[in-house]
């Protein structure tokens, strides 16, 4: 018996270095996955659930700036924490970014 997927949009695995902006602080991070409605990244950033921040993502020859709200913080008790964030406002550029990564996925031979 298979269970129903709770997510509206599929998560797409990525590994991209990003920059996280929170008030006057700037942190490095590593984006782990993306979807049409949000992102998941790890960072040393001092962020709490409910924080509105900006994330800069390298895309083609430009930098894509995305405003997000932290929905969940996963404390790993080492130097990096995980952050699930929801887009505050989507854009054509962000959707194009997601579509590009989605088109690069290779189907699993095990499915």
List keywords for this structure.
mainly beta, 111 residues, 6 strands, 50% strand, 11% helix, single chain, 1 helix
Explain what this protein looks like in three dimensions.
The structure is a single chain. The chain is mainly beta. The chain has 1 helix and 6 strands, in the order E-E-E-E-E-E-H. A hairpin with a 3-residue loop joins strand 2 and strand 3 (38-43).
List the helices and strands and how they pair.
Elements: E1 12-22, E2 25-34, E3 38-43, E4 52-59, E5 62-74, E6 81-87, H1 92-103
Antiparallel strand pairs: 1-2, 1-4, 2-3, 3-6, 4-5, 5-6
Task: Give a short summary of the structure.
This protein has 111 residues and is mostly beta strands. The chain is 11% helix and 50% strand. The protein has a 6-stranded antiparallel beta barrel with strand order 1-2-3-6-5-4.
């Amino acid at each position: 018996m298979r269970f129903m997927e709770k997510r509206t949009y599929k998560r797409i695995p990525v590994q991209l270095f990003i920059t996280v902006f929170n008030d006057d602080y700037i942190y490095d991070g590593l984006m782990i996955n993306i979807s049409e409605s949000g992102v998941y990244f790890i960072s040393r950033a001092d962020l709490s659930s409910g924080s509105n921040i900006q994330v800069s993502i390298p895309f083609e020859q430009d930098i894509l700036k995305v405003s997000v709200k932290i929905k969940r913080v996963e404390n790993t008790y080492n130097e990096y924490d995980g952050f699930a964030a929801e887009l505050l406002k989507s854009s054509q550029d962000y959707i194009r970014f997601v579509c590009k990564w989605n088109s690069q996925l290779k189907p699993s031979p095990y499915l």
